[in-house]
Amino acid sequence: MTTPVTRRALLGAAALLPLAAPALGFPDQPVRVIVPWNAGGLADVVIRALGPAMAGPLGQPVVVENRPGANGAVGTQAVAQSRPDGHTLILANAETHAINPLIYPRLPYDALGDFTPVTVFARGPFVLITRPGLGVENLEAFLARARAQAGRVTYASWGIGSTSHLAMERLMKQARLELLHVPFTGAAPASTAVLGGQVDCMFLNAGPAEAIARDGRAKILGVGADERIPLLPDVPTLKELGTPVDAANWFGLLGPARMPQAGAARIAAVTAEALRNPQVQEVFRAQAALPVTMTPEETRRFIAGDRERWGTVVRDLNIRLE
């Protein structure tokens, strides 16, 4: 059974995961983490916070390298083809290992067979935001507006087949809405379009959304999580509001296939230890990233289950990209 990504799996669980016995001589060189996205995004921020806290216990620096392209496929493929000694890892998420295999018929990597699961260390819930001038104050008013103007209310995403796109499709199905999709090439241009009033709404990572809503540049209507989050304690979940939609991403580490299991276990344990670092906790809190701990085997089961969860949406939409 997959470890639930809930409060029970958050930071306190790290204390229950002892440090694995070090693999003989591992690591004996810097550990490189490939982030298959542009610098400055949530995935980049959280791994750059974790890296220094992992370096001490590992006895080697953790070097973060951004290698974006093809919805994460460029950097992910590079790790799949790297030496399987555990010194090169991919910063994986739902797009690279659950969604891409479903929507790209010629994906240049096997999301399951080409990788060794290491750990999932964070969950990043999304919030539903609207542009300042839309004139809705809560989810109920937004749903009424969207139903009254079927097909004319627009939503942004950071790409066809992205988590932001599929999360909104989940909301549309749950609430019986018809919205017009306006895809962008990243979260920054998508959210800029909402803030500028060109697009009506979107699902956005909770951390950036809190910052822009604080000064009135957007309105947050609800959180796509089972529970309210510490950064936005007064914002209800979509579940509380009667529209239960799981809208979030996750972040984890995987190595290439045939990476030694002892090395994977050690990285997982060191990552769990790093989550207790106060500086890491502060960065995660500011970004609304919820810490999670998973063993390599729990990570394998979780990713397989996540692929099935997103697969329902992808099959309904019949999404296929070249």
From TrEMBL:
<feature type="signal peptide">
    <location>
        <begin position="1"/>
        <end position="25"/>
    </location>
</feature>
<comment type="similarity">
    <text>Belongs to the UPF0065 (bug) family.</text>
</comment>
<dbReference type="InterPro" id="IPR042100">
    <property type="entry name" value="Bug_dom1"/>
</dbReference>
<keyword id="KW-0732">Signal</keyword>
<dbReference type="InterPro" id="IPR005064">
    <property type="entry name" value="BUG"/>
</dbReference>
<protein>
    <submittedName>
        <fullName>Tripartite tricarboxylate transporter substrate binding protein</fullName>
    </submittedName>
</protein>
<dbReference type="Pfam" id="PF03401">
    <property type="entry name" value="TctC"/>
</dbReference>
